[in-house]
Amino acid sequence: MKILNRLAACVAMALLASFAINAVAQTPSGDPVKLRIGFQKSSTLIAILKARGTLEKAVAPLNVRIEWSEFASGLPLTEALNADAVDVSADVADTVPVFAQAANANFVYVAQETPSPSAQAVIVHRDAPIHSLADLKGKRIAVTKAAGVHYLLLSALARAKLTPADVKISYLAPADARAAFERNDVDAWFAWDPYVASVELDPGARILIRGDGLASYQRYYLASTPFAQKYPQIVDIVFKQLVAAGVWTKAHPQDAARILAPVWGLDQATVERANSRRTYAVRAVAAKNFGEQQAIADSFYQAKLLPKPVDTASALVWDFASRKAVAANTATSANVAAEGVVKQP
């Protein structure tokens, strides 16, 4: 009798769990929930999850169907997030959420990758008379607006006691920036991996400096606040899958390179070199890590690239303990990682 009672209890719990899943992850009509993910070509972990099909498998029990959309850079990606065109944003540079916050975008920080400063660099022509940051004065510079390298540019100019007015800036998407560099239309290109890796061995190019000591380059994953609040289980699964993808990528560099090479249009050796400079260590977002976010916001406002000052501590971060979005300046529990998957340093 006791065995039958325990069996009945187990069946009841399973049914309740099933009802809970259906309640969370189905539309009123019972149709699958759409999870619209926006990404860039350089969104490594999302590309790994997409290629291996692991995220689809993880959300399948919740009756979720994923739709993928590629964007040229991070800024239009977050604009799409604010316009309700995507639900989750793959990794964007630390600068991008600052611009989104200035535009009053309705988003929540879900996760971040630990710093990878050497994954950004300033590329110049090998025979150019540019050997220090001060030599950039008066030079033509290609940079992607609002990308992490845009902050690297501002930091580099500040270190050299220069201002944006002291150089000639062209705001170009990565592919256009590379083309301009190869045509000699610009003297320096502020780029990030895998674009750096794709040209650093070119005999006509050289690395002037990397991002170390200038910009820590933390990449963030974002979600639409309404979507995250409505489907917290999906947010949890996405987070766990990102963590797992980061661990797998670092543990299997050759396998990861084989997946990414055709996606990026690069050879495997170049992909491995690029990935070696990224940590791919995904963690929950903690308010204590927002110090540089505020420095980024202040730098862009001082450069008159933001319409108003931005208080990064007022942004929303995802609290895995309470499964809701909370203000960063009160998100002490955001230091707790999702169900023990990751520990904050």
Automatic annotation (TrEMBL):
It holds the Pfam family NMT1. Coiled coil: none annotated. Part of a binding-protein-dependent transport system for aliphatic sulfonates. Putative binding protein. Keywords: Signal, Transport. Residues 1-25 form the signal peptide. It is found in: Periplasm. Residues 34-263 form the Solute-binding protein family 3/N-terminal domain. It comes from the Bacteria. This is Putative aliphatic sulfonates-binding protein. GO terms for cellular component: membrane; periplasmic space. GO terms for molecular function: ATPase-coupled transmembrane transporter activity. Belongs to the bacterial solute-binding protein SsuA/TauA family.
